[in-house]
Specification:
Blueprint lengths: L1 E6 L3 E4 L2 E5 H12 L3 E6 L1 E2 L7 E3 L6 E4 L8 H24 L2 E6 L2 H9 L7 E6 L11 H10 L8 E6 L9 E4 L6 H7 L22 E2 L2 E5 L5 E3 L4 E6 L8 H13 L4 E6 L5 H10 L6 E5 L3 H9 L3 E4 L8 H8 L3 E4 L5 H4 L7 E2 L4 H12 L2 H15 L4 H12 L2
Parallel strand pairs: 1-4, 1-8, 2-5, 4-7, 8-9, 9-10, 10-11, 15-16, 15-18, 16-17, 18-19, 19-20
Antiparallel strand pairs: 2-3, 3-6, 12-13, 13-14
Length: 407
């Protein structure tokens, strides 16, 4: 079977080697595993542009290079016309030769692919819509158009559309899906967390900001007997791009408020982005260097340790599809604090597995404080989140992808 993947996500060519955005590469390993040949139809970059990339670990048959374009202004729309026309021709030719067509949406190139796939009603197709599928959300017209085409059974035939969350009124070709990071083997190797268990007779007193003591060091115990250090105070974590859409400044301001109240807190931010210099300036101007650390892009293993050694993940994002960092944090007993966008309320059990931000600073501080002042509430959130998120392993993810490709 020849699998064609069409996406706005670039292939990055460096020193003769092909790379993809790291989480995307890991997922595509599974798609490639069940295809005889895989072809990409996407832009090609000659520099990483600070994108977290990983070398492609599977054989790529061919790449159909597409030129990037945007339609954010009238002049850009004029420039986009010849580029879009050329892309339509290339996408049509690639689809004609493919056995299975896989679209990665949303995006400008994905929009063109959504239009072209109408001409191939008999070919087996899948689309992964990685953005917010919530029909009530405010989105660009191009995103709304893609969603309308994909959910229209007359225009889009023989296709399963994978979306995040469960949405009332969805058409029959819409399939609720998920993204996974960890495997069953990793759960067994790393051991299950015992939330709040610190050994016989030891308790975790979050209300007065003590984490419980084993000797002279504050710790948290895993189910397999290994002890992972949490250190003094309450640790917060941010994982994502340092961009306006992710609102990392709001995460810093939340922790800053606790610091002003004399609480012992710390925040680590993992990721890079256009706001880095602005955040560095804010941290310096407000003397937050002792509690806020910008860690930059980090490996999966380093981020995993971050989850294990933090009490809360903060994600005040304006838009999400399936925020992997929320599921990953819950996987390791780290309670998420996140904005109610896309399927985030569904993931967090509408507040039973995490704290839903209102993005009003004092209200959010009060919400977090209420959880910190009640050990049992925190413990239940962490345990419920862990139980829920551990349904979604890479093993199950692979089984579902295999079914999609062999239908």
């Amino acid at each position: 079977m020849k699998l064609l993947v069409i996406s706005s996500a670039p292939i990055v060519e460096l020193n003769g080697k092909l790379h993809l955005y790291a989480p995307y590469e890991k997922e595509m390993q599974l798609w490639a595993k069940y295809a005889d040949a895989i072809q990409f139809c996407c832009p090609i970059w000659r520099e990483d542009k600070k994108l977290l990339i990983a070398p492609i670990s599977f054989k790529v048959d061919t790449i159909v290079a597409l030129q990037e374009f945007d339609i954010t202004s009238f002049s850009n729309k004029l420039k986009a016309i010849p580029l879009a026309f050329l892309a339509l021709v290339k996408i049509f030719k690639a689809m004609k030769q493919a056995d299975h067509i896989h679209l990665r949406c949303p995006g400008n190139i994905a929009l063109l692919a959504c239009l072209v796939q109408i001409l191939f009603p008999n070919k087996q197709k899948t689309a992964k819509y990685a953005g917010n599928w919530d029909p009530k959300s405010q989105q660009p017209w191009s995103y709304r158009l893609q969603k309308w085409i994909l959910s229209n059974p007359f225009l889009t035939r023989n296709m399963q559309v994978l979306v995040y969350g469960e949405w009332e009124g969805s058409s029959t070709n819409i399939k609720s899906f998920f993204t996974a990071t960890y495997s069953e083997e990793e759960i067994g190797r790393l051991g299950d967390w015992e939330i709040g268990r610190l050994g016989d007779g030891e308790t975790r007193r979050l209300g007065d900001w003590e984490i419980g003591r084993l000797g002279d060091e504050e710790t948290r115990r895993w189910g397999d007997g290994v002890t992972g250090r949490r250190g003094d105070g309450v640790k917060f974590l941010f994982v994502g791009t340092l961009s306006p859409g992710k609102q990392p400044l709001y995460a810093i301001q939340l922790v800053e408020e606790f610091h002003k109240k004399g609480k012992k807190v710390a925040l680590e931010l993992y990721g890079e982005g256009v706001l880095r210099k602005e955040l560095e300036l804010y941290i310096a101007q407000n003397n937050l260097e002792s509690i806020v650390t910008l860690k930059g892009n980090q490996t999966k293993e380093t981020v995993l340790k971050g989850y294990q050694n933090s009490h809360f993940l903060i994600l005040p994002s304006k838009s999400e599809g399936w925020p992997k960092v929320v599921a990953e944090a819950m996987f390791w007993g780290c309670v998420p604090i996140a904005s109610p966008v896309s399927c985030v309320p569904f993931m967090m059990g509408n507040g039973s597995r995490g704290i839903v931000l209102k993005e009003q600073l004092h209200n959010d501080i009060s919400q977090i404080m209420n959880v910190l002042n009640n050990q049992e509430v925190y413990k239940k959130m962490a345990l419920d989140g862990q139980t829920w998120s551990r349904q979604f392993t890479t093993d199950k993810f692979e089984i579902e992808i295999k079914k999609l490709l062999r239908n």
